[in-house]
Amino acid sequence: MQHAAQKFSPLLAPFLARRSISDLHASVSFHMPCRFFSDRSRDDDSDSSLIRLSKLMSQKGICSRREADSYIQNGGVRVNGSIISELGAKVHPSSTIELSRDAKNHLNSKVTVLLNKPLNWVSSQPEDGHEPAIKLLSPANECKELNVHIPPRLDSKVAVYGPLSLPKMAVCGRLDVNSTGLLLFTQDGTLAKEILDPHGHIEKEYLVRVNLVLDESDRATQAKLHRLRDGIYIDNVLFSAKSVEIINVNQMRFVLTEGKHRQIRRMCEQVGLKVVALKRVRIGNIKLRSLPVGQWRYLQPFDKLQ
């Protein structure tokens, strides 16, 4: 049997030809009972809350809209027990949505990787002579001790070249060349969208070392903390942190739910502090933990974004 990743790459793969009744019954369900309509044929009394099936699947975090369209077109989606294969079909926001076994396997075959980015590596494209961090996703840099669970259905090419050989590995939340710590690469567009959504309120935690001694009993330090906690306007734009706290004499912990360019460094500059080291240790509930610098591991079952 072909692997699900092969059958949906490209998205409109020969999935329909291999579909069977047993495949469709062996499915994953998202329970929301209701009726459906298509764009071309709707009841006169249909209510205005109807939504495209692909959009609803995306909103519910089942898959991306593009993937949903592929699954729908290839007969891999049921609504209320009926196969929906017409693009543009609309449903109520509360409905029962089922994915076929092949569609579910395709979703589960996507790879997400955690990297502890070292200094002097850029997050994405090569820049000013610095190499992109994705080049570190090689077999030589795998932290095998932490790779307890290996994603299923990885082809032999990954064993030879590592995750850097996988297509469409997007970086989720960049770190600048002078920053270190947790960097995520994923093939999962839904996960990437959730992390990068400016209105998603996903927390990112950073350990920040500065050039001055921090003493919470000192009035000058207290004033700096108040400004950082209250938010700072820079060029008429508000830069804010969810929380800021002092850890020791020259280190702070920042928790952000937004991701403006060089945000922490620029906020610190406004209160007379210079950042000398910045390390991201958490995205949502996904933590860097004991992953060594320059090494990577696969996302594990205990790694939950929320």
From TrEMBL:
| Record-linked Pfam families | PseudoU_synth_2, S4
Which BP terms from GO are recorded?
pseudouridine synthesis
What terms describe the molecular function in GO for this protein? pseudouridine synthase activity; RNA binding
Keyword terms, alphabetized: Isomerase, RNA-binding
Q: Does the keyword NADP apply?
A: no
Q: Where exactly are the transmembrane stretches of this chain? A: none
Positions of the RNA-binding S4 domain: 51-118
Write the protein's name.
Answer: Aste57867_23392 protein
- State the organism named in the record: Aphanomyces stellatus
Encoding gene per record: Aste57867_23392
